[in-house]
Protein: Peptidase
Amino acid sequence: MATPASPFSVGVPGQPWGEAERTQWRALQRRQRSYAADVLEAVGRLHAHWDAQAYGELDYDPDFYPLVALHSADWDHTRPVALVTGGVHGYETSGVHGALKFAAEHGSAYEGRINLLVVPCVNPWGYEHIQRWNPAAVDPNRSFREHGQALEAIALMRLLAPLQGRFLVHVDLHETTDTDESEFRPALAARDGKPFEPGGIPDGFYLVGDADDPQPEFQQAIIAAVEQVTHIAPADADGKMIGSPVVAHGVINYPVKALGLCASATGARYVTTTEVYPDSPSATPEQCNAAQVAAVRAAIDYALAHP
Structure:
C-alpha cells in the first residue's frame, strides 16, 4: 500500500535527505492499522503456554508503543534458545501474524525441548503505518550493529544480550512485496540521494542465508517444508533473486553481520531470513502466514535434530 505521495515528492533528486526532508516524509505517513489490537491483544491471549515480557517502549510523540516478547512458560536455563522475530519491517504483515500464529498453535509442541523466544513485532510504528522504516526514516534491519541508529534494533539487542552464546536457531520473518519496487526502493534512493535502479520481485517464497555460515542443509530443510504450503520463487534469467545469486533452490545469501541485519543479532548456529511474496496471484494471506509457520517449525526441528 503506497503512501499518499510519491517518495520522489520529498527532497531534491540527487541530494540526501536532511532533517527537514525526513520531517516532510514523516508527515505523509498515516496510521492504517492498530498494533494494540492486532499484536498486544493477541499476546494477551497466549498466557497458557507463554510468559509475556515487556522489553522496552518507543515514544514517538504522539505515538507510544510498548515492546513485547513471548518466552516459553517452562523456560529452563540449561536448554538452548530458539528466537523468532517478526515485523522488523513493519509493513511485512505475515512476519508479524506468522510469528503470532506459531506461538498460538505450536509453542506447546516444544515444551521441555528448547526455550522459545518470540518477538512478533519489532517495529510497531512501521506496522501501524505500513512502512519499512521507523519514523526517523531509518531501516531497523540495517541497524543491528554497534552504533546502530534504530531504537527498535537497540531495544531488541538489549533483550538478547543476556542470552548470547545460548541461541541455537534464529528465524527472522520477512516479506518481499510489490511495494518494495513501487515505493520503498524509490524512497531509499531518494533518501540517500542516489538514482533509483528498477529491479524485480521474486514470485514466491525464498530464504536469505548468512553468507559467512550458510548452513545449506538447514536452508533446504526449510524450503522442503514450505514447499508443502506455497510455491518457491524461481531464479530470474540471470540466475539471481533481488540481485543476488541463487545458491540453491529458493536460497540466496547475504553478509548479514556486515549489513547489520536482524539475522546477525544472536550468533546462532542456524540462522535464516524468510521472504514471502503476498502479492502473488498464487498465494493468499493465509498461505503466507502458514508458510512463515512452516519455516519456523522446520528450522527448529532441524536445529534440534542437528545440535
User: Anything to note?
Assistant: The beta strands are 50-60, 63-72, 81-86, 115-119, 167-175, 206-210, 240-241, 244-245, 251-254, 270-276. The longest helix spans residues 285-305. The chain has one domain: 15-305.
